[in-house]
Amino acid sequence: MNEEFILALNQLESEKGIKKDIVFEALEAALISSYKKNFGMSNQNIVVDINKENGNIKIFKEMTVVDEVEDEDTEISLEDAEEISSKYKVGSIVRIEIDPMKFGRIAAQTAKQVVIQKIKDAEKDIIYDDFIDREGELITGQVQRSSKGYVFIDLGKSEGILPPNEQIKGEDYSHGNRYKMIILEVKKTPKGPQIILSRSHPNLIKRLFELEVPEIHDGIVEVFNISREAGSRTKIAVFSKSEDVDPLGACVGFKGARVKAILDSIGEEKIDIIIWDRDIDHFIANALSPSNVEKVFIDDSNKQALVVVPDYQLSLAIGKEGQNVRLAAKLTNWKIDIKSVSQFEEYLEAENMTEDELYAKLGYEDDEDEDVADEEIEFHAEASAEDIDEEDEMDLEEAEDNLDTTDTDSEE
């Protein structure tokens, strides 16, 4: 039986990662608890000796040698001790072996429950320790079941939860479907670790780009920021640390292969890839793509921008239900007010000012700054995933400025 016990422990360690020492500790605690259950006595002087090589178990009751016994559970007279061995003196500790076969059925059941509970607790701790350092990581799981809007995902040795607010609206979470998600949070609860997953978080897009774009994975191209309305549209701003690498081309891939692989993981959602620029007026203009921008007026003190677009581009710049400008504002962290050319002229007339006076009001103090603000914004490279055609190679613009590490670090 002892040999089978050791083999079982080895199997438990290899299959579930539970160390044998944990089971030995559980068994020791179980036997002590069983002794107390069986004899109704204190367990403070019970010692369990387990041979970890062959599985032999011995249980001892430790008794203190005294002249006059006051507690029969913990003390033994010198006369009785000398019958065991003449070496014992007052104050010595005598070990008396207990036969575990005499524990009884209730005690044995108690020992079994203690061991099983200890193993379950160890399994929970292993799962928690395995996932706690993986928050934000990309993971693939299979839909197991759904209940009250929550989707339970099979992650192999554990189960994750996809809450309703972390799902993509309209996505099919039928049993057996597989999805890529990020590990949003890992909680320790009385029932065990709770692994919260997300399909809607912006970091899912970032992790997918890291997976599909080697230049991002290697740190040559970096993601500046992401704004996302899951299931509908995402804007991702990127830049390159190397003059030899075009960040847009790296993200899109040949004939859009890389970005299409990402789209396959998120369904009908559209992705706009934007080039980040250290000049905020250029960055805001890029962020409002696919619309064209004629002028950007910057109010640094309030982090607000007034953007002027052609009349026929106004609805495109604003987007359906304001989505395009809303995502651009989130991407740049600036408030953006969009006006058509005609609206802008009416605005100047209503305010009784010229463009030069507007520049002065916003803090453009010299001609050089005014010239920069006044010129028509020239876009950096940008592409929307919906515009990519597999049959035609994309004609991508080169980024105007490539950034060195120092500049990007200071901006971020």
Automatic annotation (TrEMBL):
Gene Ontology CC annotations of this record: cytosol
Chain intervals for the UniProt region annotation (Disordered): 365-412
Compositionally biased residues, Acidic residues: 365-377, 384-412
Organism: Peptoniphilus duerdenii ATCC BAA-1640
Cross-referenced InterPro entries: KH_dom-like_a/b, KH_NusA_2nd, KH_sf_prok-type, NA-bd_OB-fold, NusA_N_sf, S1_domain, TF_NusA, TF_NusA_bacterial
Gene Ontology BP terms: DNA-templated transcription termination; transcription antitermination
Residues annotated as domain S1 motif: 136-200
One annotated GO molecular function: DNA-binding transcription factor activity
NCBIfam families assigned to the protein according to its UniProt record, in alphabetical order: NusA
Designated name of the protein: Transcription termination/antitermination protein NusA
Keywords for this protein: Cytoplasm, RNA-binding, Transcription, Transcription antitermination, Transcription regulation, Transcription termination
Functional note: Participates in both transcription termination and antitermination.
Subcellular location: Cytoplasm
Main location: cytoplasm
Subunit structure: Monomer. Binds directly to the core enzyme of the DNA-dependent RNA polymerase and to nascent RNA.
Gene3D superfamilies xrefs: 3.30.300.20, Nucleic acid-binding proteins (2.40.50.140), NusA, N-terminal domain (3.30.1480.10)
Entries under Pfam families matching the protein: KH_NusA_1st, KH_NusA_2nd, NusA_N, S1
Family classification: Belongs to the NusA family.
